[in-house]
Amino acid sequence: MSFCPHAWNSLSVIPGQFAPCCWFMFHWDIPDNETDLLNSSHFIELRKKMLAGEKIPQCRQCDKNEELGISSKRQEAITKFGNSVPEIKLKELDIAFDNICNLKCRGCTSGNSHLWKKDEELIYGKSIAKTKYIENNLTIDVTDIENIEITGGEPLLSPRFYPFLNKIKDSLETKNLSIVTNGTIMIEDDIIQDLKRCKFFRLSISIDGLKDTHNYFRSGDVYDTIIKNLNIYYKEFSQCKNVKLEIITTVNIYNLHELNEMKKQFDNYPNIIWTCKPLEWPEKLSIKNLPNKYKEKVDVDIPHIKAFLNEEQTIPFDEFIEYHNKLDSIRNETLPNSILSEYINDLHR
């Protein structure tokens, strides 16, 4: 499948760049003095290719999700907007205001966390982001937009987060709003009450392992705070029919062995959706690049994760080991005891 309504009605905007929907796979640089991004040359060319039935390389994340049986953004868009060509009108917005974050997760970059800049310079000789702080200065009219997703950085730390919510406060009853957060910062109580007025509201909290693994992967002693905040959100939102709470786990080399135990833990929250997404980038952290000997050690009960795990390796495991060791040295961190740490230690003997 090639056609996707997002190429006609969706915009993903991060500092200095834009895309149809898939903020984590590809973006184009925002042209100088460009205001009508949906009618930019990039979108026009993309729509031509889709209508011609050409395969779109940049849409590989949806291709992969559909292959693994995971609901893709493309499928969700077709369910919402239909399989026929829509009018060119902005209906969905994914927006990251800046790269301000209080964590520097091992699967992240300086483009999404300003704290990564120094580490990237030590590892690669330069950082991905040209400056420590990057801001999204694009002004978008959100009056008629039906679906808005706010990401980051950590959006709750952005100085633009609350002014943006205030901007749409009087029209929340007409908005489907999503916020993706690392869960370390609580939304202010009066805003929580406002969010209950949304036509639909989804709060997605990232948890990437059991306590020790999560803290190690995110480079901060934050797990207990996240669980405390999650419990508050659960009390506030779990009975609201127009609200969905979601825990997102990005499945990577570090947390693969803990998924079954994590499932048991999250089963204590019957009204929370647990979404497991296999990490695609950076490739060195992808579970498909684990050695077969280690894959045989890990018990995974989630079908689409198991299918991804059994895919062919695309880069050698040595690249992960090199990256892993450099970060441990730079950050003075040590991988928690687990079957993964035992396996890595055996490789060094």
Number of strands: 9
Largest sheet at a glance?
9 strands, mixed
Helix coverage percent: 25-40%
Strand content: 5-15%
The overall pLDDT, averaged over residues, is 92
- The poorly predicted ranges are none
What string, H for helix and E for strand, traces the elements in order? HEEEHHHEHEHEHEHHEHEHHHH
Strand order of the largest sheet: 3-2-1-4-5-6-7-8-9
Number of helical segments?
Answer: 14
* SSE class: alpha/beta
How far apart, in Å, are the first and last alpha carbons?
Answer: 48 Å
User: Rg, please?
Assistant: 20 Å
Shape: globular
Summary tags:
single chain; 349 residues; alpha/beta; 9 strands; 35% helix; globular
Task: Summarize, please.
With 349 residues, this protein is α/β, with parallel strands linked by helices. It contains 14 helices and 9 strands.
Question: Could you outline the blueprint of secondary structure elements for this entry?
Answer:
Elements lengths: L5 H4 E5 L2 E3 L8 E2 L11 H11 L8 H9 L4 H9 L10 E5 L20 H8 L22 E5 L9 H8 L7 E6 L7 H7 L4 E7 L4 H8 L4 H15 L5 E9 L7 H8 L5 E7 L13 H4 L7 H7 L7 H15 L7 H10 L1
Parallel strand pairs: 1-4, 4-5, 5-6, 6-7, 7-8, 8-9
Antiparallel strand pairs: 1-2, 2-3
